[in-house]
Please model this.
Amino acid sequence: MAKSYVSVLDIGSSRVSVLVGTSGINSTFIIKGQGEASYAGFGEGEFYEPEKLGSVISAALTRAEENAGFAIRHLYVGIPAEFCNCVCKTISSNFAVRKKITEDVLSEHYEKSYEDKDGQTLISCNAIYNILDDGKRALNPVGCKTTKITSMVSLIYAEDSFITSINKILQTLGIERVTYVSSSLCEAKYVLEPENRTGAGMLIDIGYITSSVAVVRGEGLLMLNSFSLGGGHIMADLAECLNISFSDAEQLKRKIVLSLSPSEKDYYEIPGAGATKQIPIKMANEIVMARLDMICTCIQKCISLYAQETADYIPLFLTGGGVCYIKGAKDYIAKRLGRNIELAFPPLPELNKPSYSSILGLLSHAIKEEEKNKISFLAKLLKR
Model:
C-alpha cells in the first residue's frame, strides 16, 4: 500500500511541510498524510537556527507518517531557490546515419552539458528545446529520427552544504532514499500551463521572508534568482511602526485593502481581549506599500539580470503565501513594475491557493517521476 504513494518535503521560509499522496482522477491528488512545523526560516542562503532544523523536520515527518499510517522511506526534497544555481547551455550531437532518438541516446546527449562545480551538486537537467536536422523543434524528441540534434538545456545545481545538512538529518530519521529537486522548477511547471511555457513565462514567488523570480520555458528554467524579503517583513513593519503585537499585525495584514482611498477618519479594527484597536487605514496602507516598493525593486533587479530582448514581453505570474492574500497587492505590484501580472495557483478546486503552489508542485513532480520509473523498469523487463 505504501508503495503507491510518494512523499515530499517542502522547506519554506516559515515552515517545513511533508505531504504524502498519489494521483487521483482528473489531475487531482489523493492526500494520504500531511505534517508541518513552523521554524525560524532562512535568508541570504543560510538557516537562521540550523541547530533546530532537525527537530522541526522530525516533527513534520512524524505527523505525516501518523496520518498516512506507515513509515516514510523515500522522500523527495524540494531545494529552495536561495540554495540553487541555474545555468543554461547549448549542445549538439551528430550521427553518421539517421538515428532513432531513444531515452538512452537523449540522456547521453544531455550529459555533454554536465560539468563539475565546486561546492555544488547537479540536481536536474531539463530541455528548453531540441532542434532536429530538419530544423523542427521537439520538446520530447524520443522516437524521432535525425542525423543531428541541438539542444538548449537548463542545469540546476544545489549547494553541497544544504544537501549535506539535510542528508544528516534524514538519515537519523530513518529515510533510506532521498531525491533532491528544485522547488522553483517543480512549482513553475505545475502552476503555469504548457502554453505559458512554450515561449517563456516568469513566475514570482513571494514567500514569508524570502522570494524568488524564475523564467521557465519548455521543461526547464532559463533564469532563477532570489532575495530575502517577503510577507513576514510587512507584518514586522506593521508591528514596529504601529506599536502593536505581531499577532495583531498578522490580523491587520489580512484586513488590508490597498485599493481604498481612505480619509483620515477611516480605520481598520482589530478585535482583542480588551478593547477593539483602531488603526488608521491610510497609515497602515502606506506602511504596506513602502515594503512592497522594496520588494518590487528587488524583483526589477532580478528581471534585469535576464538580459534578453524578450524580457519586457514575457508574461508575469505571482504566487506564494507572502502577499497574494493582501487585497490589492497584485495590482499594486503590477503598477510598480509597469507590467500585467496574473495570479498563479494550483488548478484544484479545494487547493487553489498560492501558498500551496510549492508543495503541490513537488507532489506533482514526484508522482510523475515515480510513474516514469515504473514504465522504464517494465520496459527493461520486457526486453529480457
The chain has a mean pLDDT of 93. The radius of gyration is 23 Å. The CA atoms of residues 120 and 159 lie 5 Å apart. The chain has three domains: 2-82+160-198+346-377, 84-155, 226-342.
